[in-house]
């Protein structure tokens, strides 16, 4: 019987996967992708543009979660900020 695995998700053209052994880094990727965000640059095709910010560590993720709760905004909105304490004018 084949193993049942979750479906694959396109993480984006600019996704640089962490090492397989880095479970903590993969947990951050899971939250980012689970919030509906992708690792894309400013161009939808990833054509050498600077990629948008996405947190890479659990500490960065915790900071953004607390900022989202404090401001009462969705986590997905705060995950894309380089600095979680400075609101963007989206």
Describe this structure in words.
34% of the residues lie in helices and 0% in strands. It is built from 3 helices and no strands. The termini are far apart. It is mainly alpha-helical and 90 residues long. The protein has helices spanning 23-34, 58-71, 75-79.
Layout: helices, strands, pairs:
Blueprint: H1 23-34, H2 58-71, H3 75-79
What order do the helices and strands follow?
HHH
Rg result: 14 Å
Basic shape: globular
Task: Characterize the biggest β-sheet.
Answer: none
End-to-end distance: 48 Å
> What is the helix content?
25-40%
In the predicted model, the low-confidence regions spanning at least 5 consecutive residues are none
The helix/strand class is mainly alpha
The share of residues in extended strands comes to under 5%
Mean pLDDT value: 83
